[in-house]
TrEMBL record:
<dbReference type="InterPro" id="IPR021475">
    <property type="entry name" value="Pants/Emi1-like"/>
</dbReference>
<dbReference type="Pfam" id="PF11326">
    <property type="entry name" value="PANTS-like"/>
</dbReference>
<protein>
    <recommendedName>
        <fullName>Synaptic plasticity regulator PANTS</fullName>
    </recommendedName>
</protein>
<comment type="similarity">
    <text>Belongs to the UPF0545 family.</text>
</comment>
Length: 136
């Protein structure tokens, strides 16, 4: 493969694979994945891709090239299989131009039967929102 003159490069730099692996193993990322997906992430593919990329840089074997191509194709397919979370609108709501009534948010009260955040008092709701936005 080295003698054919083709200048194929991996889709990412090898250090990018290692950075993705370290990010995947970080506590914050593991917590985020466990919270959103219900399971910790599997980071071994990033590590395997890093070593495969290093192997490609040293020996430029066909096996390393195909392994990196397959891994990237699988990663792209994995990203595209997730459905959109939000339903896209065709047009804006009919009352979009009206001013909002911040003192009486009808939507949040109606959804919980008038109890706000699951039965919390008004002062508890304000503290919750302050605490929530403090850490965002």
């Amino acid at each position: 493969m080295a003698g054919t003159g083709t200048a194929w490069r991996p889709p990412r730099a090898c250090d990018d694979y290692w950075s993705e692996y370290k990010h995947c193993k970080s506590l914050l990322h593991r917590f985020h994945c466990y919270y959103t997906l219900g399971e910790p992430p599997s980071c071994q593919q990033w590590k395997a891709d890093y070593y495969t990329c290093r192997d490609w840089e040293k020996h430029q074997t066909t096996e390393a090239k195909e392994a990196l191509r397959g891994s990237e194709r699988q990663r792209v397919a994995q990203q595209q299989k997730h459905a959109s979370v939000w339903e896209l609108r065709k047009k804006p709501p009919a009352d979009w131009h009206l001013p909002l009534d911040y003192r009486n948010p009808k939507d949040s009260r109606a959804a919980t039967g008038g109890a706000g955040l699951g039965g919390l008092r008004e002062s508890d709701e304000q503290f919750f929102f302050f605490f929530f936005f403090l850490y965002i």
